[in-house]
Specification:
14% strand; five-stranded parallel sheet; 23 helices; six-stranded parallel sheet; alpha/beta; 11 strands; 444 residues
């Protein structure tokens, strides 16, 4: 990301005419916006997405307005639905998570390939997800014809697989001039990588989640005006917990046991991360504060990884907990462990993991940090990447902001926790805190 921003900034500095286009998954549009604000604040950037511009207005966006920008950020879905993007002559065209075009026959791939540009770049941690054809599709976008036709490339791959051409060396030699590979373990690239990196993984709500969330907010508006004192605090906490459950998965709140993947934006994000981690053959910890979420998460991840993992929660016998730890630490066939935050957040040594995912956020950052330290501790040989899931446009985003502010304060001030602060808010401030921002929360 930082290198791409350097390229965009160089175009601006050299006064090159034109506008750059970045095509990214909807879930990371805001990640790009935040990174631009942090590292390249001089860039004039337009976010071309229905969450920022109404669809009717977006489809008729004038060329004059586009040309006034240094860069436009959009999503793969928006490219498919927006005709003028295919006609506009872009300066640099950049795809993030470029495995999104791995299927050459998909409408999404065809729409992206139809874009005009002077220069193209594809960013991906998994250029080959399932088969070598994935790589061909990405190169068909970058350098059409370099790897021949899809049929010719398929025959080429079969001959390499048979060993007739010395394995995959010919393909490696052909594509290596066009690939810059960054490995966090490569000290020649950077020798002072941080031991622990924390990032927010922003998630969108499914339509079902958004409907249940709004219904709960409406109910809160009716109830809290009629209560006071300890009764009001209890009801507020219960409704806040309900909102957090809905952000995880509608089935957690409804108790229907279905846990369909399509109903949860967080499961969508977890699949993206899980596939990337599985491709690297890394291990991960997944923390949730809700015991009832541990088994559904483990079942979902077993499908993503193609292998079963482990589960540890308050109901796990103490003797068995150490067996689970030893199995996770020593068995390469165990790719993940799902833990309830209170049961698995302290006292365990899980340094075999290099990824930590907080599926839902605890009120107090110290509790999250303790859980993260199951992997980030003495004996850890790899850099640890911590992913904190946050649903855009919901109370989770506001809580994330409060937690970030609270971390700057002393432990003494923190002892009351964000949870206590929320119950003491006025009715007006509380409703403002939990209200659903549909333009940010749901992809349209």
């Amino acid at each position: 990301t930082i290198q791409v921003l350097a390229v965009l900034s160089l175009s601006l500095r050299n006064k090159e005419k034109g506008t750059d286009l970045l095509v990214v998954p909807a879930s990371i549009v805001d990640n790009w916006r935040l990174e631009i604000e942090r590292f390249a604040p001089d860039l004039k950037v337009l976010i071309a997405h229905p969450s920022r511009i109404p669809s009717t207005e977006l489809k008729k966006l004038s060329r004059k307005k586009v040309e006034a920008q240094d860069a436009v950020i959009t999503t793969y879905g928006t490219v498919m639905r927006t005709h003028w993007m295919k006609e506009h002559p872009w300066r640099n065209l950049i795809l993030d998570e470029a495995q999104a075009i791995k299927n050459p026959g998909a409408k999404q791939t065809k729409a992206v390939n139809a874009l005009e540009s002077k220069w193209r770049l594809a960013l991906t941690g998994t250029p080959v997800e399932n088969r070598l054809g994935d790589l061909w599709s990405i190169f068909d976008f970058l350098n059409p014809g370099l790897l021949g036709s899809a049929q010719a490339f398929s025959r080429f791959c079969k001959s390499m697989a048979s060993g007739k051409q010395g394995g995959y060396a010919p393909l490696r030699k052909l594509v290596s001039p066009y690939i810059l590979r960054r490995l966090k373990t490569d000290k020649s690239v950077i020798g002072d990588l941080p031991d622990k990196t924390e990032v927010n993984a922003y998630c969108l709500l499914s339509k079902r989640q958004a409907a249940l969330y709004q219904q709960s907010v409406d109910e809160m508006k009716k109830v809290i005006g009629e209560l006071s004192g300890i009764e009001r605090r209890g009801v507020v906490l219960a409704l806040l917990m309900r909102l957090k459950q809905i952000c995880n998965h509608p089935s957690q709140w409804l108790g229907d046991g279905s846990y369909e993947a399509a109903d949860s934006g967080k499961l969508f994000r977890l699949r993206e991360l899980g596939e990337s981690i599985a491709a690297r053959q890394d291990k991960m910890l997944v923390f949730t504060q809700f015991r009832e979420m541990t088994e559904p998460l483990a079942g979902f991840l077993a499908e993503v990884f193609g292998r079963t993992g482990l589960v540890l929660h308050g109901g796990t016998p103490v003797k068995k907990r150490q067996e689970l730890v030893e199995s996770f630490q020593s068995d390469d066939r165990v790719p993940f462990i799902v833990l309830s935050l209170k049961a698995g957040g302290t006292g365990l040594n899980l340094t075999a993991a290099s990824h930590v995912i907080h599926f839902d956020r605890w009120w107090n950052p110290a509790v999250e940090n303790q859980a993260t330290d199951r992997a980030f501790r003495i004996g850890q040989k790899k850099n640890v990447l911590v992913h904190k899931f946050v649903c855009r446009g919901t109370v989770e985003e506001h809580i994330d902001g409060l937690i970030a502010d609270k971390q700057k304060l002393s432990d003494e001030i923190l002892s009351g926790g964000v949870e206590s602060a929320l119950t003491e808010m006025s009715n007006e401030d509380l409703i403002s805190m939990v209200s659903l921002d549909l333009s940010s929360a749901v992809e349209r």
